[in-house]
Design goal:
Elements lengths: L4 E2 L1 E9 L7 E10 L2 E7 L8 E2 L2 E3 L3 E5 L1 E6 L31 H17 L2 E8 L2 H9 L4 E6 L6 H4 L8 H18 L2 H4 L1 E2 L2 E3 L7 H14 L3 E5 L3 H11 L3 H8 L6 E5 L5 H10 L2 E4 L1 H6 L6 H7 L2 E4 L8 H16 L8 H8 L1 H6 L17 E5 L11 H7 L6 E6 L2 E5 L2 E2 L4 H21 L1
Helix pairs in contact: 1-2, 1-16, 4-6, 9-11, 12-13, 13-15
Amino acid sequence: MTAPLFDLVLTGATVLTADPSNPLVEDAVIGVQAGRITHLEPRDPSVPPLRAGRTIALDGNVVTPGFVNIHTHANLSMVRGVAEDLGFAPAYTPGIPQGHMLDAEEAYAISRLGALEALMFGSTLINDTFVHADAVTPGMAEIGLRVFSCGRIHDVDFSGVSLGRWEHVDAIGERRLEEALALAERYQGRSNNRIGVQLAAHAPDTCSTPFLRRIARAAEQHGLRVTTHLSQSKVEVARIRERDGMSPPELLDEVGLLTDTLLAAHCIHVSDSDIARIGRAGINIAHIPKGNATGGTIAPTSRLRAAGARLTLGTDNMHADMVEVMRWALAVGRIQEGAVTEDWQPASVFEMATIAGARAMGLEDEIGSLRIGKCADLVAFDFRRPHLTPNTNPLGNLVHVAHGRDVALVMVDGEILVEDGNPTRVDAEAIRRDADRAIKAVWARARAA
């Protein structure tokens, strides 16, 4: 009998699968057919090599599932190196470029830079929200990674928020929600499930209470998940306390959004009762450890997890290196505990970056771990480098020492999108140049405002 012919075979790598039943495969042979993993075993010298259209030797590499970057704003690469030192989220900060300042062409160019950066650092899925989603969604998806996208949904007039003015306008909300539902109708599940939509309710303070109820009904009616910012700032907490007489988590519970399908970013400024409420609901928390710590804040991740919340990881508007984010999440967790504990080990944050993120997206049966039958979404890190030698503990090296710049190969659905550290579908320099031109134009307008 003729041996099966694989589309692609990868040999020689150490594989960190994120599958608890088989977490580590050394000197592995991975076979890919029709975009899925159909063989994953240690190499057996007595068995002839698998027949394949192409075989890639990855000796000295460590292979992981593609990272699920659960919360990004690709367009906010336009304020990198500046927003980090202002102490607050860009949308609330005067004097810098704001989302409402971007036109569709600029948003398209800048978002592609953010998506490419994420891909080249090992993210195979990004869940992105900002502006002009009708333009940026296909633009980012053309790079090849999985893109969940939605324009930020709000009924506040954002031009006043950075000045401390919250003016809610029904027409704004209806327009934003209609745009999001139209985006979902057009793109949800397209490109072999590489494109999707979650309804991006921006935040409790930028959505009026009636509008939050409207979003909850729309999500239920259309079978869509909701992503939001929650308890991200003292300003938000004070605003909701003044407006609604309750905390942001209490408000989301009241309007029907605090459920196990909600993905809520940050959850920093939460009380004991908020933590208990969040835990009972079993929401998915997009933990942003580096971005939060840069702003001088820490989410109480140990207590949230103990209460029942499910932790995932995202880069937000920071540098899109999920390895670095894992490292920050581990450090922040241990700082809260005041010790190295069993609950905060490299495996804990690796799970958050992979299968936990897939679960939050409703995709745990397809991605997030490497096992036979799942999509061939994977990343190879070249460990043949001084800072990754010796490789005594591959997972420990990955979390404590590696960087996104160590990524050599990225694959989605068995398609190689990054090889030898370079993208295969697009011209990286052209994307960088177009984005740089757009960002300079936006900065010029912001400074003149």
